[in-house]
Amino acid sequence: FGVFCKFTSSNATKFYFDNISVNHIYKDTEAPVIENIEALNAKELRLYFNETLDLASAETLQNYQIQESEQIPLSANLNPINPSEVSLIFSNDFPANQNLSLKISNIQDPAGNVLQNTYHNFFFSKAYYGDVLINEIMVDPTPVQDLPDAEYLELFNQKDYVVSLNNWHLFIGSSDFQFPDIEIPAKSFLLLSHPDNLDYLSSYGNILPIPSFGLTNSGKALVLKNKSDQIIHYINYDDTWYKDDFKEDGGWSLEMISPDHFCEQAINWSASQNTKGGSPGSTNSLSNLNPDYQTPKIKSLDLINQNTLSICFSKSMDSLSLKNLENYDVDNGIGKPMRVKIFAPDYNQAEIIFTNSFAENTIYQLTISPSLTGCCGSELQNFTEHFAIPQEAEFNDIIINEILFDAWLDDGEYVELYNRSDKVIDLRQLLFSRINANIYDTAYYSVQPNAGQIFPDEYLLLCKNKESVLDVYYSENPDMIYDFDNFPLFPNTEGQVLLSKASDKSAVIDMLSYNENMHHPLLNNTRGISLERLSPEGETSDLKNWQSAAANVNYGTPAYQNSQFQEKTDNEEIIQITPDIFSPDLDGFDDILQINYKFQESGNTINLIIYNARGQRIRYLVKNELAGLSGQFFWDGTTEEGDKAALGIYILYFEYFDLNGKVEKIKKTCVLGGKL
C-alpha cells in the first residue's frame, strides 16, 4: 500500500494526508469464470471472463480446443485494454448454425487461481439467402381497419435457430438503416417501424424502432443484407401487388403468400385477408392461396457488341450459378465465356463476355447448363437460345401481318409482325407508330419494341397487356408476345399504323391503313375479331389481301400463322385457283378462294368476272387492274351486293390484254360449299 503524488515544485509542500487506514485486506482465491463466448466470424471467437487474466496462460494455445473438430487456435491474444477478454483465431471455418463446444483449461488470474477444464457452448450464426424474409409490409394504414394507424415492415426468421441481425442493413429505396446488436429467434417475427409507433405496435410482438422509417404507397425496392454485405432478401413492391382495387386504397397490408417461393415478386404477394387489415407479428393470412408459380426461362438475349451477350431471365436466378462460367456455351467455335457479370439485387440478368468475336451471317446457339437454376432451385424451362449479328431492316423485310383494333378486353389490342426476309433483325432498330387517327389528330404515338431479335419466318406480337391478349386468344408462341406500357391504342373504326426505322420515321418498313369495312361482310359484330393478312407476298395496301380471322381460332392468331394464311404456289399455269372447293363460313378451313396469276411478261391488264352455273354475273371481282408479273386475288364468297353467294358451281372468267392490245381469255371453275 502507498500513496503516489504527482506535482510541480511550487506545490511540493501543499499535500496533506490524515486519518488513513487499511482494513479487511481482500485475498483473491477464486478462479476466473467464463461469462460468454461470441463468434465474431467463421474463424474468430471472443471470450469474456469475469476478471483480469494472467497473460501467459491466456495466450497459451493448448488451453483451448473445439471439441467437435479437436481444433486448437492459431493465435490467442489477451486484450491489453480490457485484459478480461481473449480473442482466438482458428485455421478452419466453424460449421454454421450448429451448437459447438469449446474446452477451456489452465487459465489463471494474476493471483494464481487456475480455471481447470470447463466446457462452454457457442453458436456461429450464418444467415443465407432467404433465411430471414421481408414477410409483410403496411405502406398505407388509412383508412384504418382494426390495426393501429402505423406503417410497419415485418421480418420473419424461417430457420430453426436464432439469427443475429447485428450490423445488418435494410435499404428502403436509397435509405440505409444499420441494425443494432439484436437477435430474431427461430420461427419468429420482428416488426420495424418509426419510433412514434412503438406504443401502438408493441402488443403485436417484438418491434425495433427506425428513426427514418417510411414506406411509399406506390412502391419501392427493399433490400435486406447481412453484415458481410450479402443479400438475404429482396423485393421491389408496387401498388399492383394488392390485386384488389378496394384494398389498394389503404388500410390493408401486403403479405407474402409462401416463404417457399420467397424469390418470387408480384405473384407471391397479395393484399391481406385478415379482417384486421394485416397480420403483424403472426402468421400471414394467405396460406389458402395457391398461385401458379412458373419456372424461370430465358426472356431475351441481346448482342451487346462483337463478343458480349446480355441474357435476361423471367425470374431471379441463383447468383452463384448465374456467374459460373461453366454454365454457358456457344457453338460455331465460340465456346465458354471468359467472364460473366451479374447484377444485384434482382439477379435476373447477366452479361457474358467471350474471348472470340461473333461473325456476320452466322446464327449461333447459346446452351445453358441445367446447373443454372432459379434462386429457389427451380429448373429453367429452356436451355437454348439463338442469336446473330443483326442486319438492317429495309422496306417489306418485316410486315404488318395481323391487327386487332377493337378488342373485347381493355388494353387487349395488338399488332403482329412477320419477318418475311432472310435476315436476323433487331427489333430495337424499328419504331411502331399509330398515326392519323382522324383529321384533327396527326400526331405519332410510337413504341420502340425492345423485344430482342426476330429471325426469318418468325412472328412477333406487340401489345399493351399480354395477359389481356392471352385471356381471350390461344397462342402457339406466347414467348413472342411483348407488352409495352406506351403501346398506342387504336381507333375502333379506322386508323393507320406504321413500321419504320427508329433512326428515321420517314424510312418506312411497312404501313397499313385499316378500317372496319375490311372485315368479312357477313359479320354482324366485329368486336374482338382481328384482321389477318392472307399472303405475305401480297401488298399491305391491297384491301383484298386482308380478311377476318376464323371462328375456330376464336377470331385471332396472336404470334403464329394466320388462320386465313394463303400459301404461294409454284404452278406454271397463268391462272390457278385454290382450293377447288371452298366454304366461306369462317371455320378456319378453306374460307377464302385464292386466285394466283403468273405472266411471262409485264404490262398486262386483268378483268375477272364470276358467274354462277346459270351464267348470271355474281361479282365483278377485278376490273381493268394493271398486273405485275405475278400476284393474287381473293374471293370471300360474297356477291356484288355483299350478300353470301349460294352454294354451287361458279365460273371464273379471266380476260387479260397486253400493251399491244392482244387479248387472252381463260375460264376456271370452283365450288362454293357449305352446310345445308
Briefly characterize the structure.
The protein is mainly beta and 676 residues long. Helices cover 3% and strands 36% of the residues. Strands 17-16-11-10-20-21 form a 6-stranded mixed β-sheet, with no helix packed on it. A 6-stranded mixed β-sheet has the order 36-35-30-29-39-40, with no helix packed on it. The protein has a 5-stranded mixed β-sheet with strand order 42-48-47-44-45, with no helix packed on it.
Task: Name the features.
5 helices; Immunoglobulin-like; mainly beta; 6-stranded mixed sheet; 5 domains; 676 residues
Protein architecture, described:
The protein is mainly beta and 676 residues long. It folds into 5 domains: 34-123, Sandwich (Immunoglobulin-like), CATH 2.60.40.1220; 132-271, Lamin Tail domain (Immunoglobulin-like, Sandwich), CATH 2.60.40; 305-387, Immunoglobulin-like; 398-553, Immunoglobulin-like, CATH 2.60.40; 575-672, Immunoglobulin-like (Sandwich). 3% of the residues lie in helices and 36% in strands. It has 5 helices and 48 strands. The strands form 13 sheets. It has a 6-stranded mixed sheet, with no helix packed on it. A 6-stranded mixed sheet has the order 36-35-30-29-39-40, with no helix packed on it. A hairpin with a 5-residue loop joins strand 7 and strand 8.
